[in-house]
Amino acid sequence: MTSTSRVLAPHTPVQTQRQQIDTPTPRIGFLYGFGRFVVAPFARAMYRPRVLGRQNVPKSGAVILASNHLSFIDSVVIPVVAPRPVQFLAKSHYFEGHGISGWVKRVFFTAIGAVGVKRGAGRDSQDALELSRDILEAGNAFALYPEGTRSRDGRLYRGRTGVAWLALTTGVPVVPVGLIGTERLQPVGKNLPKFARVTVAFGTPIDVSSFGPATSGRARREATDAIMAEIQRLSGQVEAGVYNEGPAE
After folding, report:
1. What's the rounded Cα separation, in Å, for the pair 221 and 211?
2. CB 177 within 8 A of CB 68
3. Distance, CA of 234 to chain centre
4. Whole-prediction pTM value?
5. Does domain 30-235 have CATH number 3.40.1130.10?
6. 3-state secondary structure the chain
7. Quick check: 4 and 126 in contact, CB under 8 A?
């Protein structure tokens, strides 16, 4: 999945990517509704995830769900157990395939709340942040992974400050999320999930406004570190102390 956490720049107009990505919709579409109300209950009954702090997710209004990242399936688990619809960004090529397989991918990622975006540094990364902001300004719940890519050794890596930029720019609360066991549910290299019990812990919402303005690098860094500290408390992971530069999946 694509991270929105690399760019530190303040808001600038978006002129390049808007014609290349899917426009997020504030309301639940048919496919997402089908996935949430039909598939999600079946998945919960089969895998019986342990969910803690579900009441910490606001029932309405914009909110950022900032989670650790252990497996590809994290972006399925969070929408399945969250008490409200959740959107997140995914690589645009998941929506661009042809034939039956391309159609299946588009249906699947749309059904779990994904919004296509091009991955890259510089302009592409800033555009991803801008699109994330659009989702929040529409009043939606938006999930992201501050580490940028999944952890392959189980440690919690340093958070990139895009999450703080989003929160400080939009003024929305951040709910830290700790995922436990999803790397066993779908290990690296496996296309289908296994039977493994996972825990999803939603923490108390964090108001980062006290750290300063979005234009301050220090404010973004301190706010991000505070969010990551709560994610660590919820997940119990050992902190790596460095950025995760591994291949994004």
Report:
1. 9
2. yes
3. 16
4. 0.82
5. yes
6. CCCCCCCCCCCCCCCCCCCCCCCCCCCCCHHHHHHHHHHHHHHHHHHCCEEECHHHCCCCCCEEEEECCCCCCHHHHHHHHCCCCEEEEEEHHHHCCCHHHHHHHHHHHHHCCEEEECCCCCHHHHHHHHHHHHHHHCCCEEEECCCCCCCCCCCECCCCCHHHHHHHHHCCCEEEEEEECHHHHCCCCCCCCCCCCCEEEECCCECCHHHCCCCCHHHHHHHHHHHHHHHHHHHCCCECCCCCCCCCC
7. no
The domain ranges of the chain are 30-235
Amino acid code (one letter) for 117: V
Cα atoms in the Cβ-side hemisphere of radius 13 Å centred on 214:
19
pLDDT by residue (tens digit) across 46-93? 888 999 999 999 999 999 999 999 998 999 899 999 999 999 887 766
- Sole residue written with tokens 């660590």: 232
Cβ-contact 39, 111 below 8 angstroms: yes
Residue 118 neighbours by CB under 8 Å, 6+ apart: 17, 20, 21, 91, 92, 124, 127, 128
